[in-house]
Amino acid sequence: MPEDSEAPPEKGTRKPRADSLRNRDLLLGAAKAAFAETGAEAPLEDIARRAGVGIGTLYRHFPTREALVAAVYAREIEQLAASADALLARGPAGQALGDWLNVLIDYMATKRVIAPALRADPGEGSKLYASSGSTILATLQRLTDAAHAAGDIRPDIGFEDILRMMSGLSQGYEQPGWDAGARRLLSVMMAGLRA
User: Fold this and answer.
1) Where does the HTH tetR-type domain start and stop, copy by copy (predicted)?
2) CA-to-CA distance for 21 and 26, rounded, in angstroms?
């Protein structure tokens, strides 16, 4: 058998149906919105209703609240990392860096709401929370390197400097309304970084 051919699926496994994938995506979007409004303890019935599915569908995808919270967080991390590629493809690397840091602020606003539930989960949630930093740092490093290579940011400012600036920006992220101030400071930071 050639190396590049796909192995047949294992007996008893099959690809999820399109409607199942759609329902899962709807549930994750509805959960993110509900968590942002009322916290990680948002009623699961409300989340199912927002998604336009029954509570049984929610439980088939996410048997526990902890599983739902962890899935919302995992999707946020995946989208955050994937957005870097889209931003780099769309425009200059320096602009991509600034745009991604704005997306990072959105992520932090979501994280603020669900982080306590993730840390309290002795299973998947706490492991996911602990491992997410490496994905974020690797993405920030890649964008910083691209902006340097393009000559879009000052050559004397390194990844560690940007990381320190973002650490300062993140102070108080657990407070409601933090993101508006963080965006103002980010625009000042990006203006100072330009080559």
Assistant:
1) 21-80
2) 9
Cross-strand partners of 153: 194
CA distances from 38 to 9, 92, 134 (A): 42, 38, 29
Cα→Cα distances 161→52, 73, 155, Å: 45, 27, 11
Q: At 176, give phi and psi (nearest 5°).
A: -60, 140
> Where in the chain do CATH 1.10.357.10 domains reside?
70-193
Whether 136 and 82 have beta carbons less than 8 Å apart is answered as no
Q: Per CATH, which fold does 16-63 belong to?
A: Arc Repressor Mutant, subunit A (1.10.10)
Note whether 35 and 42 are within 8 A (CB): yes
What is the gyration radius of the CA atoms in the chain, in angstroms? 20
Helix (H, G, I), strand (E, B) or coil at 153: strand
- Looking at the DSSP bridge assignments, the partners of residue 194 are 153
Q: What is the pLDDT of residues 91-112, one digit of tens each?
A: 999 999 999 999 999 888 878 8
Helix or strand run (H / E) with residue 92 = none
pTM score: 0.80
- Structural domain 70-193, CATH architecture: Orthogonal Bundle (1.10)
| Positions of CATH 1.10.10.60 in the chain | 16-63
CA angle at 47 for the pair 46 and 48, rounded to the nearest 5°: 90
Q: What are 154-176's pLDDT values in tens digits?
A: 999 999 999 999 999 989 888 87
